[in-house]
Amino acid sequence: MITTALSATVHGQALHPTPIARRELLPDDVDVRVTFCGVCHSDLHALHTPPEQGGIFPLVPGHEFVGEVVAVGSSVIDFAPGDPVAVGNIVDSCGTCRMCHAGQENFCTEFPTLTYGGRDRVDGTVTAGAYAGRYVVRDRFVYHRPTALDPAAVAPLMCAGITVWEPLRTSGVGPGTRLGVVGIGGLGHLAIRLGRALGAEVTVFTTTPAKVADAQRLGAEHVVISTDDGAMEDARSSLDLILDTVAVAHDLTPYLRSLDLDGTLFNLGHLGPVRVQATDLLIGRKRLASAGSGGHRWTQDLLNFCGEHGITADIEVLPAAEVNTALERLARGDVRYRFVLDLSSLHEPRQ
Prior knowledge:
Quinone Oxidoreductase, Chain A, domain 1; 2 domains; seven-stranded mixed beta sheet; 26% strand
């Protein structure tokens, strides 16, 4: 099957419409017409990584998307043509390892197949992402999308949302939990909303005083300016759980010190090397953890919860033709809080 995608043929090239091939439907495949796809910092990173450093080109980004089912393989029973669906950054896994059996396909011991830049488990080709008119994906990694929500604003839930949701759920966040969120961006603004909806008392850490009102609008009960030493001292030992969503390298020490006895800091935004003093963990028996993406169980759980509570991302929708503008603005931090591409211009005429 041929579809139109937004592709960079070589490193450093702007994205442009290009015909690409999708595999023919296998028995457990779902063919999705992509309507909206979020623009993630991971897309920027992939586009900016040269081949000599592991970059893969040609490259079609996009790994948080929504759409509707066009067709299904012969063994698919959970989806039918016309169904509204959502797909995230994993489109396959081995299905046989301990993690897959536990519903944690995101931790597949043979490594999950990524929505783009991964290795197709069937034909060995490099996967091309969802900045495209169509996507073919294994049914296990397609999710029922709540129809009451704005579909464009659902798309970022499939990456930014699930990244914060799985640690919230597995940590048992609920009424009485004192939750901290570091940073108010694509991940952070959803962490605030979801934490508050779970019943937690939410404290937000930000370097930007201008974001105080926005943090409160999103549901934060307390906002701490992290550059204010006095405010950080007042926050010491005050929280049970912290989700750090900042995407650049930074000192984790002040946030570890903000945890109470047996508290946990999830480092979610920056996945590079970190350095901590063992005593900052020792005093108070604190834990440093991380998480990424989500397995099938928690991803559908997130969508169901958001449908019940009316939770979506704050987005700015741009047409597919403005994809390079979206990427340039994202690189400057000029978005609150997620760009989403309208990909309708890439669709083939309906039969």
